[in-house]
Amino acid sequence: MRLTAYFMPTLKENPAEAQIVSHRLMLRAGMIRQASAGIYSWLPLGFRVLKRIEQIVREEQDRMGCQEVLMPTIQSADLWKKSGRYDDYGKEMLRILDRHEREMLYGPTNEELITEIFRHSVKSYRELPKLLYHIQWKFRDEVRPRFGIMRGREFLMKDAYSFDLDQEGARRAYNKMFVAYQRTFQRMGLKAIPMAADTGPIGGDLSHEFIILAHTGESAVFCDRDFIEFDALSSDIDYEDAKAVAQVVDHFTSLYARTDEKHDAALFEERVPEARRYVGRGIEVGHIFYFGTKYALPLEALVAKPDGEAVPVHGGSYGIGVSRLVGAIIEASHDDAGIIWPDSVAPFAVGLINLKTNDAATKSKCEEIYGRLRQAGIEVLYDDRDERPGAKFADMDLIGLPWQLVVGPRGIASGLVELKRRATGERLELPLDRALEKIAP
Amino acid sequence: MRLTAYFMPTLKENPAEAQIVSHRLMLRAGMIRQASAGIYSWLPLGFRVLKRIEQIVREEQDRMGCQEVLMPTIQSADLWKKSGRYDDYGKEMLRILDRHEREMLYGPTNEELITEIFRHSVKSYRELPKLLYHIQWKFRDEVRPRFGIMRGREFLMKDAYSFDLDQEGARRAYNKMFVAYQRTFQRMGLKAIPMAADTGPIGGDLSHEFIILAHTGESAVFCDRDFIEFDALSSDIDYEDAKAVAQVVDHFTSLYARTDEKHDAALFEERVPEARRYVGRGIEVGHIFYFGTKYALPLEALVAKPDGEAVPVHGGSYGIGVSRLVGAIIEASHDDAGIIWPDSVAPFAVGLINLKTNDAATKSKCEEIYGRLRQAGIEVLYDDRDERPGAKFADMDLIGLPWQLVVGPRGIASGLVELKRRATGERLELPLDRALEKIAP
User: Fold this and answer.
1) 3-state SS class at A12
2) Number of CB pairs, chain A paired with chain B, less than 8 A apart
3) Distance between the two ends of chain A, CA-based, in angstroms?
4) What is the DSSP letter of B232?
5) What confidence tens digit (pLDDT) does each residue in B326-374 have?
6) Which residues, at least 6 apart from B391, have a Cβ–Cβ distance to it below 8 Å?
7) CB atoms B35 and A72 under 8 Å
8) Residue A57, phi then psi, degrees to nearest 5
9) Which of A292, A377, A441, B380 has a beta carbon 3.0–4.6 Å from B373's, enabling a disulfide?
């Protein structure tokens, strides 16, 4: 993509309304634009990151055997009255009357609707287990929306739902999702720590939040430092091997890790030696729940056991804040100059900087490199604007592409290009072929 | 995907509420499930088709130089009051009061919001032209929603917006989009005929609807039969060649083609010889508009001309009914037994039918074929259910995958599989390797 054609309205000044770094950088990089309080439009650069994150979430859900559906944003209030949550949600739920004065709502979550879909179609233990998910916009009418898309009113969430015959089966689904979440966040370059959590309005008695450590986080967290150094998951987990999956979960839940909601100071001190006590702040990016028959009972989602008896199905629900992750990754990965995207979610792999657009040789070299990158399937943003080098460097650092390829008259004379790694600041002068190898090994 | 694990709740009986064939078949094939009046959930099979269609739309928008953004579903009423459309839309617009009693609405279209985004960022002719699109759920509170997702209340639409300095530039954008639409529908196996159209609440003075001929369509159409036989577009159009693009548009608008709204019986008879007059029905799948400065004037979207004078930008908008296309394709492509998916949008390329699940040799052969298809990157739905062959054939015809691979004891003895092409009913007995070649040439 040529920057002269690209719609990327960067800002030079820090916007006054932005209190946290991700909000500030997303506005400055031209990733988002506020549409109304707590509601944002995603501009091309931000949209690309959102899609990258969504795709990683999707691939890991598919891999663990979860099937994608898509439920609507607008739901009837009827099911929510049956489950008893129509009143529980209070003013955070956006309530709507349609033209026939029917009570509708903008879904903040989908336990009721997916249970209704399940109940109409699945009648026997033979059809279990079932795991379904969707990635859909949700609405939560926050009284004071803030922090940009981190605490907006309209947000993109992946929510998955499991259906099993009994608690043991539900626990297997819970464990698989737990491991899938670890893999998902790991692929985004994040260390997400699973912490025992309250269940809130979803209900149930088993729940973990996945928390990224960041000093701008909304929750105080207390955990064993061993967690911060924990090993990456091996990439070849067999989800059908319930024992292996359970071992991963046991490993990651064996150490102390809690947010302030669940923190127990005495237990913390008892279980974690002083040198390993980490106290800081964190951002919630995922939350999983086992809630048993909480929804199956009132909504009458029954399945026949092998002996013919009809019993309520056991359920769990599993959320990932897809749009929130865009901000969370920035909170975890930036410096004074701007964003530092992990390769897996970067909007483009490389920024190509033409240092002297009015020099024919430089222009022709840049066009050649631009063509070669595109041919190699490497996504490139080409700064072909007639701007000072300083402004180009600043914008490229701001938007945080993993690699920068800098081409100017001096390099052309010596047959070299300059390659900069955004994360480390490391610069290399090297022949073009070697640079391309480094970008796409 | 194994059918025993897949969530595809097919129905044996025709649902009473479905009046048209696409609605009937989508319910029977387990593609959708009604959530409330005119609002549907997409189950795994339907979701796959929706995503295929969305991806074709996206690729053709990207190819013509349109950049993807994502605007929210919920908008503030303020901009709509400025443009004057808050009253125009009447009860079809879903109006919402948030917790602070602010007037919001569920966007039925996005001319106001995109103009506001543009106005904040683009100030000079040097930054033009700009072409932006998004693919987002819309809401239209139909008084009597019907025909399933063909005339639902919550629907997925691609809407694009062009910004140019003057009418001539806007016409170039209009022409490019016209050609992109032809390519888009062609890739889905559809013949969409562009017809001169009224502009309705979008406004403006130049507009075409893209109409698929289907006898269940909502519009009466009158056109030259030459259109029905028209040549496919060549695939290598250069969108930067404005003259070549205009020639394609001229070609496709040279023949008579109008819906009842714009039909002129006298002109029809004058311009089209009797033998070439086609009178039938059609389904609208796309609609493009040039509306000049209709939104730029009230919303003050001004750009500086080369001489410094600030003038309102010229705009157009361009819609494709993404979810509606799922139904439109079925209306155009089915038989008594069920859906016939064009290859490009099919949820799976091939259905693999095990005729005798309790026979070890048949099972092992099917597993081998299933593995080979997946390894070759061919998407396969494997009917491994313990069901009668008749039920399996009926379900496979119903869901309309382009190819069926039938494996039973008799074929294994002779070293052959049976390959059926859904569209033609043609059956071939041939060695497995040859069958795989036919499926993925």
Assistant:
1) coil
2) 139
3) 22
4) P
5) 999 999 999 999 999 999 999 999 999 999 999 999 999 999 999 999 9
6) none
7) yes
8) -60, -45
9) B380
The pair of structure tokens assigned to A441 is 């090994």
Distances (CA, A) of A40 to A33, A154, A216, B72: 6, 8, 21, 6
Average pLDDT over residues B295-302: 97
* Residue given tokens 């700009």 in the structure block: B130
Nearest to B69 among A41, A69, A139 (CB): A41
Q: Of A134, A170, A124, A150, give the one whose Cα is nearest residue A54.
A: A134
pLDDT of residue A231: 65
How many Cβ atoms sit within 10 Å of the Cβ of residue A378? 15
CA-based nearest residue to A162, from A284, A312, A321, A313: A313
A335 Cβ partners below 8 Å, 6+ apart?
Answer: none
Give B-chain residues touching A130 at CB under 8 angstroms.
Answer: 7
Residues B232-263: tens digit of each pLDDT: 666 678 999 999 999 989 988 888 999 998 99
DSSP A270-305: HHS-GGGEEEEEEEEEEEEEEEETTTHHHHT-EEE-
B379 contacts: CB under 8 Å, gap ≥ 6: B347, B348, B349, B350
Query: In whole angstroms, what is the distance from residue A72 CA to residue B36 CA?
Result: 10
A405 backbone dihedrals φ, ψ, rounded to 5°: -110, 120
In this predicted structure, the answer to whether residue B200 has a pLDDT above a threshold of 80 is: no
A61, A163, B89, B104 from B93: Cα distances, Å: 35, 37, 6, 10
Task: Kindly write down the DSSP assignment for every residue of A359-395, as one continuous string.
Answer: -HHHHHHHHHHHHHHHHTT--EEEE-SS--HHHHHHH
- Contacts A104 to B, Cβ<8 Å: 36
- With a pLDDT cut of 70, the percent of chain A lying above it is 98
CA distance A151 to A413: 51
Residue A132 with chain B: CB contacts under 8 Å: 7, 44
Q: Are the C-beta atoms of residues A8 and A30 closer than 8 Å to each other?
A: yes
Burial of A423: CB neighbours in 10 Å, binned 0-12, 13-18, 19+: middle
DSSP string, B291-343: EETTTHHHHT-EEE-TTS-EEEPEEEEEEEEHHHHHHHHHHHSEETTEE---G
Q: Do A44 and B91 touch (CB under 8 A)?
A: no
Q: Extract the tokens encoding A334.
A: 């930036």
| Strand, helix or coil for residue A116 | helix
d(CA A230, CA A223): 12
Q: Which chain B residue lies closest to A113 (C-alpha atoms)?
A: B35
Q: Which residues of A touch B113 (CB under 8 A)?
A: 35, 41
pLDDT in tens, B27-72: 999 999 999 999 999 999 999 999 999 999 999 999 999 999 999 9
A228 vs A211: CA distance, rounded Å = 11
Between these two residues, A251 and B245, which has the higher pLDDT value?
A: B245
What residue has token string 């997916």? A114
Specify whether the CB–CB gap between B67 and B42 falls below 8 A: no
A99: nearest CB among B98, B117, B141: B141
Q: Report the distance separating Cα A207 and Cα B93, nearest Å.
A: 40
- Across A175-276, the runs of DSSP E, i.e. the strands, are 192-196, 206-213, 219-224, 257-259
The answer to whether the CB of B69 falls within 8 A of the CB of A41 is yes
> Distance, in angstroms, between A291 CA and closest chain B CA?
22
Closest CA to B35 of A213, A317, A78: A78
Round to whole Å and give the CA distance between B354 and B405.
9
CB B59 within 8 A of CB A133: no
